[in-house]
Design brief:
Largest sheet: none
Number of domains: 1
Low-confidence stretches: none
Shape: globular
Strand content: under 5%
Number of strands: 0
CATH topology: Helix Hairpins
Structural class: mainly alpha
Helix content: over 70%
Mean pLDDT: 97
CATH superfamily: MazG-like
Radius of gyration: 14 Å
Order of helices and strands: HHHH
Amino acid sequence: MELSAFQDLMEQTYGRQDRARGTPATVAWLCEELGELAQAVRKGTTEQQLHELGDVLAWLASLANQLGLSLEDAVARYVTDPP
């Protein structure tokens, strides 16, 4: 799945409730998911790691949608001018 299609899916599925929650709460949820990913990387199975990677991507897409930004635009610099 392309990043833009995934971002659109998250908007269609969760957009209304994500905007109602607001960006501060979304950032908090994203941070919580990052913590869960870190724990899965340290002690989890491959299945748990994959699950948590998906959760992080979903919350990141939600945040991008709330900010009106494109994840594809965000990663474009890695193609043309990596840091």
